[in-house]
Each structure stands twice: as structure tokens, then as C-alpha cells.
Amino acid sequence: MTLILSRCPADDGYRMPGEFEDHDGCWMIWPERTDNWRMGAKLAEKAFTAVAEAISRFEMVTMCVSGRQFVNARNRLPEQVRVIEMSNNDSWMRDVGPTFVINDQGRMRLVDWNFNAWGGLDEGLYFPWDQDDLIPRKIAEITGVDRYKAPLVMEGGSIHVDGEGTLITTEECLLNPNRNPDLSREQIEDHLKRYLNLKKIIWLPRGCYNDETDGHVDNLCCFSRPGEVILNWTDDQDDPQFPISKEAFEILRDASDVRGRNLKVHKLHQPKPVIISAEECQGVDLVEGSIPRQVGDRLAASYVNFYIANGGLVMPLFGDPQDQPAMDKMRELFPEREIVGVFAREILLGGGNIHCITQQQPKT
Amino acid sequence: MTLILSRCPADDGYRMPGEFEDHDGCWMIWPERTDNWRMGAKLAEKAFTAVAEAISRFEMVTMCVSGRQFVNARNRLPEQVRVIEMSNNDSWMRDVGPTFVINDQGRMRLVDWNFNAWGGLDEGLYFPWDQDDLIPRKIAEITGVDRYKAPLVMEGGSIHVDGEGTLITTEECLLNPNRNPDLSREQIEDHLKRYLNLKKIIWLPRGCYNDETDGHVDNLCCFSRPGEVILNWTDDQDDPQFPISKEAFEILRDASDVRGRNLKVHKLHQPKPVIISAEECQGVDLVEGSIPRQVGDRLAASYVNFYIANGGLVMPLFGDPQDQPAMDKMRELFPEREIVGVFAREILLGGGNIHCITQQQPKT
């Protein structure tokens, strides 16, 4: 498939649609690293399978899996999930995968960002990341679409768009010197605008408390539709998340989108702090170079880290009293979609959640 | 994709088309084993690239390649060739790949045969062959088609069909005890008939002289169209190939196909014996368990080992005086197709030729 170097999607009339627009399917990667996923990744396999099964009720799911795990994944996943061999360094398709862009004629291409494992050799989460970085190229071949190569280190989880030309991101991540140290804020904005066909970028200062991605926006805040966003929230003023959410709320409330609308901000109350137990720490391979999991560490649990599917929405649950109010709130915000909850503590233990392990392919 | 165990293509109205029928594309595997392909497989890469390039002028080519070689293959192959990651033990897509079957409504499924590396632990060509055996399953996932699992050890190169219900094969291969020792000739016939939707099987005793596949028919004889076959031939009565070709000629001449037609047999004269040189022997990894290449060994060179593409035909050349007459003969036999020759000695050194490294996907 053609590699397009000299042009970008905005030149050619391609845009990144909102996640709430129609999909042709969803891409995921099978969990495998036993230095990140405890108990030989068997518990993560179960959680990823539950997510894939839930999404596959609404749209086609393709699970990418290393050659070593192909047969195991194929045998564990429901028949309707497509399983394709693809080498990887871990299982965060949101961050390593391509961003699909479409034009008005319903044609699709993809943007292939640079990936450096959330910070490269400067506080990145693992080394090497060479196989992750090839994934957009391989998906371009499988889907038969042309590929733009963007000169920017960027993970899919660090952005959300409304599909009309507005993007939300965080300074903590995109301006972090461990991503694009040689680019100014203006240069980064310019790349985002050209590669995603945007006119307006809303910057939030920080992502969720203790989020090891350097504050990906997709754990904090997302568009439910153009003009409306959902924000991870807490009413507990003593929680370190409180000032982060409050600051984001005020910025979003005062922001306008590409069409000049003031954003409507829906607060989604977080669960109680999710703390790693001693048992959960013990099942991970002890190796140098991986982020250690420490007993008592707080994980960045947020209901905002959900995936919007065709006619459905798959959201994380934590076995928390807030689970039910959160699902009720989502039913209210997405009355046209079936809301499916998946117990996701095991995914959170690996460092992310349902949105982080999925990547939508828009309808063409 | 669905695995169909209890039924077979004949039950469901699916048949294997002739190779001369229309295709949606061609599947190949990138050469990589340095104990089979000399000089780090670099010369084979060049030959496989020439074959892929030639076929891609007529139909889409998908090159499957291990994760290790993905980037190299992608960079060496022309842009129009699709490159997909797929683990493998070697590069013989004809033999390890699926047999695609279609029905009258234009739907496709595939047959997944058992593969044991041309003889398993009893004179097979390498061990292990576990990744080769998974290839039909992986292609089923990529193409999105349902898969019949056939209870038969069988390589695609050991059969040729006319698409109307007639098959040609060799006793040397299919009745070899290193393939299906527990099945009788009648049981093997029955499986072939049920899984390929056949009514008539023509058995030739032996394949080409010194063919390490145990006499695959695709190096000796193939259908050019229903009712007509092309046979590897020599007029040299002292050549050990002579009695093999003569015997096959007499059987074919006297045989009738599923429609009761007598077969028309076209003789295609072989090149002079192709002998491995000292230089060619030296560039292969020295390991136990691979078939040794010995200086002076004769390779089973045959022009019959060609690939029929949409509107084209890609045939092996050997730098032999017979190359030109062979191409002329093929132009006469396939006046509606463009005949493209590819210098194929390097593929032959690995143990096969152009037909052995390709597998057509019929048009749906």
C-alpha cells in the first residue's frame, strides 16, 4: 500500500471521525507480556476476551496476536472475533495503532504516528517498542489502505476529537519533553491540525492522577457527541484527582469548539481509589526495565475509559458502589446505545482500560 | 471464522476450480530459512520478488512473511504487492496453503489439509512444521472465509484439477506410507472426492526424477484447460526422466476425464539436466535435519511448474536452449494469455519452482 510522505490528510480532504460515528470494526491486541500482565497473562486474557466479546455484539472485532499466542487466542476467543497474527510489544492498540481518516467519498486512509512506549528511554514504560511501531504499517497492508507517515510521537489515547474539527488533549502528555522535545507547542498543534484535519485544539493541563501514560486525555475526558464532553469527576476535595478534574472542568466549561459552541460538560464520578493488593503484585515477572507494581499503589481508575461501538458502548466496571450510578449516567447520555459493563480491574492493573486496548475503524 | 468438521465441500456444493479459471489473487510466502536458501536467502528473495512482481501485473499478490523479515520484505517488494505477517517454517505456499473452494453463488470457503513437511519424521524435509500447518487457518481469518478441516495429509502440489470433477495425482506421493499410512487408496480417493468435489481421479505412478517432494504431480503434469494436459517430456531415452514421462504419457493418452473426453496431451520438453554447483552448495547453513545439497546432484527442473494468472502465465526459465521453445509452446497453448518467463534456478535450488511457491485464490 502506498506510503504518503509529502502530503497530509488535511491536504487531501481526509478527517478523523468522532468515535461515536459509525464503525466498520474494532482492532485489539492480545495481552501477552508476563512482566506486565500477572499470572502468565491468563487473567488479562479473560478480561480482553470479555471486552472483545462485548464489542463483537455490535461490530466486527479483529484481535491481533503474536505467532506464539495465535492458537491460544483463537481457541479462547468467540468464533465471531477475527484473529490475525501480528507481532507486538504489548497490547495497547489505542496507543500503538493507526488513526483512521476518511473523506466525503467514504474512502479511508490511515495515519501512522511515531511511537516510543510513552516516553522512550526517558521514563518510557518498556524497551524495545519496535514491533509496536510497525503495527499501523501492518494494518495498512491488511486493510488495503494508503498510509500517511506523521512526523510526531503521539499515542491515540492522548487525543479525542469531535469529528468536526475540534480536538482535546493534555499538556502533560503532548508537551512532555519525552515525546517531541524538538517541537514547540505551535509545531505540535500544526501537525495535529494537518494530520487530523482540525481547526481547534483545547488543551487541558493534566490527565488523571497517577496515570502512567503521562496523562492521556482518554482516561479523563472524551466527546459523547459534538458539543458535549464527559469528564472524570470526584466530589472529594481531599482526593488528588479533585484539583485535576476541577481545573479541567473550568477550562472545558469556558471553551468553545470549532463551531463556536460552548461545550456542555457531563461529570462522571470516579470509583473509590483502586489500590494494588499484595497478591496482584506477586504474579508479574520480575525483570529490569518494566514499571514495577508496588503494593498500595493507586491505579488511575476512571469510567471515562470506555469504547463506543455501533449502537453500543462498552465501559469498565470496578466492583465499586459507583458502578451502577456510572452505568445509569451513561444510559442517560447515550440513550440510543446499549450500555455494556465489563469488570476491568485486570486491564487497569496492566496500566490502562477499555479505551486504551481498542481502536475503531470508521465506516466507509 | 467457522471451522466445519462434520461436513465437506461436496456436501455443500463447493468445488475446487481449475487454476485457469479467474482469480481474486495469489498467495506466497517470503523465503527465509538459511539452511535451505543459500547466501542468507538473499538470492531467493530476489527470485521470489521477480515472481511476485510478474504475477502482480495480472492479479493481486499477497506475500506472507515472518515478523523477523516483515520490514525487509516490505521494502524489497513492489508497492502493489500486499505484505502480511505470518509465521512459517518455509516458503512453499502451494503445499502448506489452503485449497480454496467456491460454489455456484460465488461464495468461497477453504480446505485445510494436514501438513507434515513432505513425509513427517519418515523422510520429511524438515522439523518442525507447526507454523506451516497453521497457515490455512490464518488465511481463513484474513479472508474471512469458513474452513473445512480435511482428515488427510496432503500438499497442494500433489494434485491438479480441471475444475469439472477430474483430478490428476501420483501414487508415489499420495500413496506414500509417509503421508497417510492408515488410509487405503480407496479411502484417500474418497477424501479427495469429498473435499474437492470430484468424480474422477487419474493416478500416475511417479513424479519427476529426483523430485524431493516424493513426486508431486505439479512438476510433471497439469491441466491447461478441461480436456487438455501439459506433460514434462524428454526425447532422450537415456535420461531417467524418459521412462517416467513415457509411462505418464501412455496413461494420460488412454485416460478419459469426468465428462468422458479423452485427454489431449501436450508434451513440453524439459531443459538439460540442472546440476548443483560447488558454489551453490556452499552458501547454505550446515545444520542437522535439513536435506543436504550435494555438488553434482540433479535438480528436478521442469517448465510445467508454472503459475496461471488472470490473463497471464508466469513460467520458470533456466538459461537453457529449451527456454525459448518452451515459451513458444506455452504461447501456442495459451494464446489468450501473456507468457512471462522468470529465471528460476534459485527457486529450484531450494527444492521447487514457481507453482510450488504460489497458491491461487479464485474469484468470487
Outline the fold blueprint.
The structure is a homodimer of 364-residue chains.
Chain A: E1 3-4, H1 9-12, E2 23-29, H2 42-56, E3 61-65, H3 70-76, E4 82-85, H4 93-96, E5 99-102, E6 108-114, H5 130-143, E7 147-153, E8 159-161, E9 166-170, H6 171-174, H7 185-196, E10 200-204, E11 221-225, E12 228-233, H8 241-254, E13 264-269, E14 274-275, H9 278-282, E15 298-299, E16 307-309, E17 312-317, H10 323-333, E18 338-343, H11 345-349, E19 359-362
Parallel strand pairs in A: 1-7, 2-3, 3-4, 6-7, 9-10, 12-13, 17-18
Antiparallel strand pairs in A: 2-19, 5-6, 8-9, 11-12, 14-15, 16-17
Number of strands of chain A: 19
Chain pair forming the biggest interface? A-B, 22 and 21 residues
Structural class of chain A: alpha/beta
Q: What is the level-2 CATH architecture name of the domain at 3-156 and 265-362 in chain A?
A: 5-stranded Propeller
Oligomeric state, counting identical vs distinct chains: homodimer
Radius of gyration of chain A: 19 Å
CATH class of the domain at 3-156 and 265-362 in chain A: Alpha Beta
3D architecture notes:
The structure is a homodimer. Chain A has a domain at about 5-155 and about 265-360: 5-stranded Propeller (L-arginine/glycine Amidinotransferase, Chain A). Chain A contains 11 helices and 19 strands. The first copy, chain A, is globular. By secondary structure, chain A is α/β, with parallel strands linked by helices. Chain A has helices at about 10, 40-55, 70-75, 95, 130-145, 170-175, 185-195, 240-255, 280, 325-335, 345-350; strands at about 5, 25-30, 60-65, 80-85, 100, 110-115, 145-155, 160, 165-170, 200-205, 220-225, 230-235, 265-270, 275, 300, 305-310, 310-315, 340-345, 360. The interface of A and B includes residues 1, 3, 71, 83 and 137 of A.
